[in-house]
Amino acid sequence: MPFPARRVVGAAGYFFRMGTHGTAHIVWDWNGTLFHDNTAIIGATNAAFAELGLAPITLERYRELYCVPVPRFYERLIGRLPTDEEWEVMDVTFHRYYTEHRIGCGLTDGVPTLLAGWESAGRSQSILSMYGHEDLVPLVRGFGIEAHFVRVDGRTGPSGGSKAEHMVRHVRALAGVEPARTVVIGDAADDAVAALHVGARAVLYTGGSHSRASLEGVGVPVVDTLEEAVAEAERLAA
């Protein structure tokens, strides 16, 4: 029987527990995966567009074209990269609107049960998000699910980039977790890129920022529910 993990509280709101060596591990994405915030995301995107006099887009259009780095997503929509000044205006507007409207969003269906089940089987899990760390930690705590995770990391530094280098630091900080037995579950192609960057596997979920069609070209398993994602993670990490 594995020894119980030990919880440690770190600086700047980081919280983590020592993992169990050799067990299967899930790195969860937050926005669009554990946290069902599509309505806040599309509303914030359209608020940012309005600052530049651009027409709003539908959620379906967003999910067809979304990519990182985020300025490239805007390029797909408006036909050019935004200028530095435009990017700053859009980024500030997006985050202001999102912060106001995220309070109406909740966890994806079934999340508490899935997290508890994975943990009770003696496996470990963590969160790595490109949402700002100082905002992420209290949000996770507010849903009462932090005890299920050995570590929670949000983005530090500028927004809009890839998750790959953040994943390197995240996995390196997970004591006792082997990349070969780690599966990243997220809703974006960038989650799979980040997983590959550290030698982990990935499962992509269709309920968030990308359409199924845009995910299927990535070359990793694509699922329609988080329950399916966890089952696939268990298979991949075996």
Please provide a written account of the structure:
- This is Phosphatase.
- Pfam families: Hydrolase (PF00702).
- It comes from Streptomyces fructofermentans.
- The protein has 238 residues and is an alpha/beta fold.
- Helix content is 43%, strand content 18%.
- The protein has helices at 38-51, 59-65, 70-78, 84-101, 111-120, 133-142, 164-172, 189-198, 212-216, 226-236, and strands at residues 6-9, 15-18, 25-28, 35-36, 106-107, 124-132, 151-155, 182-186, 201-205, 222-223.
- Strands 7-6-3-8-9-10 form a six-stranded parallel sheet, with helices on both faces. A two-stranded antiparallel ribbon has the order 1-2.
- The longest helix is centred in the middle third of the chain and has 18 residues, at 84-101.
- The radius of gyration is 17 Å and the shape is globular.
- The model is unreliable at 1-16 (pLDDT under 50).
Topology, element by element:
Blueprint: E1 6-9, E2 15-18, E3 25-28, E4 35-36, H1 38-51, H2 59-65, H3 70-78, H4 84-101, E5 106-107, H5 111-120, E6 124-132, H6 133-142, E7 151-155, H7 164-172, E8 182-186, H8 189-198, E9 201-205, H9 212-216, E10 222-223, H10 226-236
Parallel strand pairs: 3-6, 3-8, 6-7, 8-9, 9-10
Antiparallel strand pairs: 1-2, 4-5
Q: Helix tally?
A: 10
Shape: globular
Instruction: Measure the end-to-end span.
Output: 17 Å
User: Biggest β-sheet, characterized?
Assistant: 6 strands, parallel
Estimate what percentage of residues fall within beta strands.
Answer: 15-25%
Task: Tell me the structural class.
Answer: alpha/beta
Please compute the radius of gyration using only Cα atoms: 17 Å
| Subunit arrangement of the protein | single chain
> N-to-C SSE series?
EEEEHHHHEHEHEHEHEHEH
The strand order across the widest sheet is: 7-6-3-8-9-10
Q: Count all strands and give the number.
A: 10
Helix content: 40-55%
> What's the mean pLDDT score?
90
- Stretches where pLDDT falls below 50 for ≥5 residues? 1-16
GO molecular function: phosphoglycolate phosphatase activity
Pfam families: Hydrolase
Protein name: Phosphatase
GO biological process, one term: DNA repair
